Amino acid sequence: MKNPKAVVIGGGSGISVLLRGLKYLPLDITAIVTVADDGGSSGILCKEFNIPAPGDLRNVMGALSDVEPLIEDVFQYRFKKDTFLEGHPLGNLLIIAMTELTGNITDAMENLRKLFNIKGRILPASDKKITLFAEKENGKIIKGESNIPVIGEKIKRVFYKEIIEAPKENIIALKEADLIIFGMGSLYTSIIPNLLLKGIKESILESRGQKIYVCNAMEQKGETESYTVYDHVKAIYDNVGEKIIDKVIINNSKIPDIILKRYESEKSDVVKIDYENLKKLNIKIIERDILEVDKKGMIRHHPHKLAAVIYSLIANWEAFYV
């Protein structure tokens, strides 16, 4: 018996939500995770140890752990103020330590996977320290992932100043995938950066797997203000230079008015679906009820509802589970 191979690409909290649902399904999961973060603890450690940023990798470890709540509390524990470790999450330090022991961050993540019984492989998008740049529509060039989102400044593209090759493990995983899922999250700073590394675009195009994009439900200030679903997809195409999406998953459940009004007061709105433009791109639209409102009143994708939708898209069932 073999399970379908699902490769999830992304970063931030979006990929973690997606993985929390997928890990309970009979899938072989690989997460390709952005390492371009240069803010907070990740940024400090990245400069100090000259390694890829560990923050998003830490979040994915917690999401994929078999004992998620306990492990996540440990990984996310931040040392208190007035200490030399102030603000650093323990998970970041574990990744740094294992990288020093193994000599590279890819091997470090594999060893940590075994140590903490993590369901699925976690592959850094790059095994080297990288710096993300952005060109704004006003012509400004911005250096550093944390500096890119600015309210009112539209992003034209993100890029690296040098050619950065993707690790061979990432290339192989994409070529062998039955599902390639571009997770929801920060479009320009969590998703697109992974797709710009040398070899990734070609591997996605070569793969026989379905290419599925889970679109954000809400606009993100500083990145996707006033963006429709079509605008999200077109930004990926424009930055990557190829049409790499077969299907887009979109929420169609009604969001309570009281929640929407709070978002509107913060200058954020629902991402609107522009059907005609999407049809021109020859993308299949999958509309489902996939949202929830969390305890803080924030709109989130429901991990299990979303995972069920993705799982239902698997083709050629006769090739698996026999």
The rounded distance between the terminal residues' Cα atoms is 5 Å
Biggest sheet details: 7 strands, parallel
CATH architecture descriptor text of the largest domain: 3-Layer(aba) Sandwich
Proportion of residues in helical segments: 25-40%
> Compute the gyration radius: what is it?
19 Å
CATH topology type of the largest domain: Rossmann fold
Count of DSSP helices?
13
Task: Please describe the topology of this protein.
Elements: E1 5-10, H1 12-22, E2 28-33, H2 40-49, H3 55-64, H4 68-76, H5 90-102, H6 105-115, E3 121-124, E4 133-136, E5 141-143, E6 155-159, H7 168-175, E7 179-182, H8 187-195, H9 200-206, E8 210-214, H10 229-240, E9 247-251, H11 257-265, H12 275-280, E10 284-288, E11 291-293, E12 299-301, H13 303-312
Parallel strand pairs: 1-2, 1-7, 2-3, 7-8, 8-9, 9-10
Antiparallel strand pairs: 4-5, 4-6, 11-12
Helix pairs in contact: 1-3, 1-13, 3-4, 5-6, 7-9, 8-10
